């Protein structure tokens, strides 16, 4: 594989820490990057993605789609040859899970009020 087909990517997490840099082929998909992020997620973080579907990658202010390749997402201007591309990682838990958690949280909060007027 020619050297120019490889891209160095570093993933910046919500707290400013990084995962990587890793070297990817220009033909690697965004979904492959997300799976790598989930598998290499640092221990001890408060927010942890359960699957690649909960991870959003942002590069140059745009949310990247799973079916796009790294080569399609590279910004042609302003890149330094041999430089590392930084992609920001956002974790969004699935809505079904959060709704189920809210239902569980709501049930113990039933308050019975009794008033007595003399």
Describe the protein's architecture and organization:
With 118 residues, the protein is an alpha+beta fold. It contains three helices and five strands. Strands 2-1-5-3-4 form a five-stranded mixed β-sheet. The longest helix is centred in the C-terminal third of the chain and has 12 residues, at 95-106. The protein is elongated and about 85 Å long.
How far is the first residue's CA from the last residue's CA? 88 Å
- Which structural class best describes the helix and strand composition? alpha+beta
Strand content: 25-35%
Query: Could you give the count of β-strands?
Result: 5
Task: Write down the overall geometry.
Answer: elongated
Low-confidence stretches: none
What is the residue-mean pLDDT, rounded to a whole number?
78
Number of contiguous helices: 3
Keywords:
single chain, 118 residues, alpha+beta, five-stranded mixed β-sheet, 3 helices, 22% helix
Structure in a nutshell:
By secondary structure, the chain is α+β, with helices and mostly antiparallel strands. It has helices spanning 30-39, 70-73, 95-106; strands at residues 6-12, 18-25, 55-59, 62-63, 84-91.
Secondary-structure topology with pairs:
Layout: E1 6-12, E2 18-25, H1 30-39, E3 55-59, E4 62-63, H2 70-73, E5 84-91, H3 95-106
Parallel strand pairs: 1-5
Antiparallel strand pairs: 1-2, 3-4, 3-5
